[in-house]
């Protein structure tokens, strides 16, 4: 699975592995290789472009962790971006509050629908459910037989309508009656197998739509053959526009798929991939986990967790360093500025606050105006290193110079300096309180930092 892509991505990452650091030159070269690898794997052009742009941005903005190599760090960044492209969080099937849970399965002919229905029945049986299969592919007798044969192997009953041995060609009726049958026989899941055509056509779409309207399924799943690359993506798009399904099943991921469909579908149709089918055998079905798939593609699971650990360590060291500074009253404007920079990279002031021992998750529900910080940053930027380290030397002349340099008024500089002093005091007090196990009032500290009212926003001027 994805062997070609895996090899090429590894190759691209190799080129930064020997280098001491990630810089613009080697990142640009690596990004070109990565983009080429993705396009080669038949990934949608737009998706590939966005992917490399995101990786590049993350790579150049990242703190350099001394304990890992640039190659390792870039692997982690790639992993995170692959995970995002594949859908981020795993999404499963939501069960109906009142059984049965009805699952409608649609897709082109040969995509793997019937096989998937049987696999899904097996999957649910293993979880202790009692699924019923509905044979709504009524146009070929062989289709009903195929479903029955597969269902036998997984010990699940099939609902079909025959009249004198002849199959009744009414897909909607089969689906509808199957739901009633499930209610009468205490089956808690109904899986509806439908007919497909070689190509998208009106009659097929209409039929699926009719079934959907009549039985109102809890889930409509779209099965797509991963080996068909960008065609799969186009079909997925057309089906989605017509029947607005809830999730995608990637079938035949075991074949020599280049990976293009898997990596493009989520972005193009914005529906989660819920299962991957990886073989003709009925146990070859796996719930789809974007992060696991990303690790498989990169073939570097160890590296990913290694870098994660290094990152945590780095954060811990930073936190310790910061705490020590607060304790020894060495926390100066430069530290404050560095923290603001860090926050911007991490995207949240909450991270900084979370570093103060004992504060942790207390701030998770605080609404913070991050805009106010740009303003503060500009002022600190206009200070000399000496002024940052010793705010007490900030006399009138210096304050006027800083105000001019940062495009602010002297009173803004004054305000920042006094807020900073107050904040320092509060941080110390809070540290003392938390070390005694007392509760602290975070929102008043936030006031000290931003000069605003609690977590409310203060509009930047
Ligand atoms: N290698 C492989 N073959 C599959 C997979 N799923 C289905 N098939 C095969 O693809 C063919 C079509 O599958 P079927 O379930 O009948 O597709 P349907 O027409 O959509 O119902 C059959 O030969 C299946 O054995 C899979 O995940 N991997
Ligand atoms: Mg079929």
From TrEMBL:
Entry's Gene Ontology cellular component terms: signal recognition particle
Domain of life: Bacteria
Bias type Gly residues, positions: 450-461
GO molecular function: 7S RNA binding; GTP binding; GTPase activity
SMART domains: AAA, SRP54, SRP54_N
Residues binding GTP, per UniProt: 107-114, 193-197, 251-254
Gene3D superfamilies referenced in this protein's UniProt entry, alphabetically: P-loop containing nucleotide triphosphate hydrolases, Signal recognition particle SRP54, nucleotide-binding domain, Signal recognition particle, SRP54 subunit, M-domain
Domain SRP54-type proteins GTP-binding residue range list: 272-285
Main localization (coarse): cytoplasm
Subcellular location: Cytoplasm
Pfam families registered for this protein in UniProt: SRP54 (PF00448), SRP54_N (PF02881), SRP_SPB (PF02978)
Keyword vocabulary terms for this entry: Coiled coil, Cytoplasm, GTP-binding, Hydrolase, Nucleotide-binding, Ribonucleoprotein, RNA-binding, Signal recognition particle
Coiled-coil ranges (or none): 307-339
Region (Disordered): 436-461
GO BP terms: SRP-dependent cotranslational protein targeting to membrane
Keyword Lipoprotein: no
Swiss-Prot/TrEMBL catalytic activity: GTP + H2O = GDP + phosphate + H(+)
EC top class, as a word: hydrolase
Enzyme Commission number(s) from the entry: 3.6.5.4
Task performed by this protein: Involved in targeting and insertion of nascent membrane proteins into the cytoplasmic membrane. Binds to the hydrophobic signal sequence of the ribosome-nascent chain (RNC) as it emerges from the ribosomes. The SRP-RNC complex is then targeted to the cytoplasmic membrane where it interacts with the SRP receptor FtsY.
NCBIfam families registered for this protein in UniProt: ffh
Similarity-based family: Belongs to the GTP-binding SRP family. SRP54 subfamily.
Complex formation: Part of the signal recognition particle protein translocation system, which is composed of SRP and FtsY.
Protein name, as recorded: Signal recognition particle protein
Organism the protein comes from: Salinibacter ruber (strain DSM 13855 / M31)
């Amino acid at each position: 699975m994805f062997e070609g892509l895996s090899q090429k991505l590894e190759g691209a990452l190799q080129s930064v592995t020997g280098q001491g650091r990630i810089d613009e030159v080697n990142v640009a070269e690596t990004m070109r290789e990565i983009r080429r690898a993705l396009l080669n794997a038949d990934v949608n052009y737009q998706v590939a472009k966005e992917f490399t742009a995101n990786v590049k941005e993350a790579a150049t903005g990242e703190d350099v962790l001394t304990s890992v190599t640039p190659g390792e760090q870039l692997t982690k960044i790639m992993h995170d971006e692959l995970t995002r492209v594949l859908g981020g969080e795993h999404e499963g099937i939501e069960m109906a509050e009142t059984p049965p849970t009805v699952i409608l399965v649609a897709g082109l002919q040969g995509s793997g629908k019937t096989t998937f229905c049987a696999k899904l029945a097996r999957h649910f049986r293993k979880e202790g459910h009692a699924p019923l299969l509905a044979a709504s592919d009524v146009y070929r007798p062989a289709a009903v037989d195929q479903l029955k044969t597969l269902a036998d192997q997984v010990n699940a009953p099939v609902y079909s309508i025959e009249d004198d041995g002849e199959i009744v060609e009414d897909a909607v009726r089969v689906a509808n009656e199957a739901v009633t049958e499930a209610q009468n026989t205490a089956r808690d899941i109904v899986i509806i197998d439908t007919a497909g055509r070689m190509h998208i056509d009106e009659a097929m779409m209409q039929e699926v739509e009719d079934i959907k309207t009549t039985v109102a399924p809890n889930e409509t799943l779209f099965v797509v053959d991963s080996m068909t690359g960008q065609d799969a993506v186009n079909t997925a798009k057309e089906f989605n526009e017509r029947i607005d399904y809830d999730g995608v099943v990637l079938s035949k991921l075991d074949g020599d798929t280049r990976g293009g469909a898997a990596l493009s579908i989520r972005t193009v149709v914005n529906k989660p991939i819920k299962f991957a089918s990886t073989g003709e055998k009925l146990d070859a079905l796996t719930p789809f986990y974007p992060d696991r798939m990303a690790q498989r593609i990169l073939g570097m699971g160890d590296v990913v967790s290694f870098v994660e650990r290094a990152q945590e360590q780095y954060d811990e060291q930073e936190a310790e360093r910061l705490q020590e500074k607060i304790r020894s009253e060495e926390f100066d404007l430069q530290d404050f500025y560095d923290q603001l920079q860090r926050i911007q990279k991490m995207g949240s002031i909450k991270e900084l606050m979370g570093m103060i021992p004992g504060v942790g998750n207390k701030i998770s529900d605080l609404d913070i105006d991050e805009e106010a910080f740009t303003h503060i940053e500009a002022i600190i930027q206009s200070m000399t290193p000496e002024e940052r380290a010793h705010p007490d030397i900030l006399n009138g002349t210096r304050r006027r110079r800083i105000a001019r340099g940062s495009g602010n008024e002297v009173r803004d500089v004054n305000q920042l300096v006094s807020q900073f002093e107050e904040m320092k005091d509060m941080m110390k007090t809070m540290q003392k309180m938390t070390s005694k196990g007392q509760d602290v009032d975070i929102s008043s500290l936030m006031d000290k930092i931003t000069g605003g009212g609690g977590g409310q926003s203060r509009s930047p001027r």
